[in-house]
Amino acid sequence: MKLYGYWRSLAAFRVRIALNLKGIPFEVESMDLVKGDQFSDAYRKINPQMVVPTLVDGDSVLTQSMAILEYLDECHPEPPLLPADAAERARVRAICMISVADIHPLLVPRIRKYITQEMGHSEEELMAWIHNWMTTGLAAMEEKLAGDSATGTYCHGDSVTLADLCLVPQVGAAGMFGVDTGTYLTAKRIFETCLQLPAFFDARPQAQPDFPEEMKS
Amino acid sequence: MKLYGYWRSLAAFRVRIALNLKGIPFEVESMDLVKGDQFSDAYRKINPQMVVPTLVDGDSVLTQSMAILEYLDECHPEPPLLPADAAERARVRAICMISVADIHPLLVPRIRKYITQEMGHSEEELMAWIHNWMTTGLAAMEEKLAGDSATGTYCHGDSVTLADLCLVPQVGAAGMFGVDTGTYLTAKRIFETCLQLPAFFDARPQAQPDFPEEMKS
Cβ of B94 and A125 within 8 Å? Predict the structure, then answer.
């Protein structure tokens, strides 16, 4: 398979973890979102939204990380990343969606650009926006996880599910943006537990070939 | 089943359509998002994110509209709202996510409040924000639908899928906000076709008991 991604993209991070967990070999085509690689005519034909990730599996061109995760779990069922029970599956997907729908879309490049360039806000005001939605979202995630006996070693029980694939990039991004994640005890614990697994560790932004040299120090 | 919703919520609209299509009887508890019903202690216990919808099915308390839609399709498989083939399912879910993750989260009450109250923007500037993301998102949806032979009477082939449940509220909201939807030919055609089905028509915001009297004219 071929993954169009970027080291910094949380959505591409989710997909890399899934591919690693499923043991699927894949090559990465790095799309530099800062330079604007995603706006090329060639990429637009693959992904009209001009965002990452896109996963190409034979003739299938797959977009939207959540749709890709479900696809991978359907086509490569081992290890399963969703529980068998419908209500449990709904809980896992709801945790995913806190990150996928309620936090991440507020922080992506096009939003940041609009806030600074169209609305005329400073970098400081942009950071306040980012911090606000990260902390609101992580608090919601923590409240969902902490008080629920369905939470185990991972977000749902003692096996990795799609919820962990969405939580880890989100908590990681919060750390990168200087958000104090220490107060989100359960989310932080699950984040650290997941990163002990090679599938998560190797998918980190810092472990990608396109991670910038100057950020390595 | 019991649905905590609100006439204006696009996410609750999606769930109402699914319940209607599946022929599942449900009662609605209206949460006035403008008055702040969602912030009550009682509702917070049900939905810590303090958003709608929440669907209660026996002992199961389900949140996040996309997770709820998948749950309903799993528990009540007739009529199916996802194709059988994995790549086709991924296409349907990707169309859903354009609305669920890329448009709708930018327009919800908490965002509008932040933009006007925290960032100090006028109603006019807020409307520019709303229009910008609605038109960007609808253009992406249109591009995904228009050039693809997988699009049929509905978003995917000639049967209703979850993609239609996400498209219809989004196109409807655009109309309510004065966005000219006429340029999104395919999306508009599918929107109009869907609204000929009672399951969609009866789920419209305007058809809900909590739709404000003063807006009926």
Answer: no
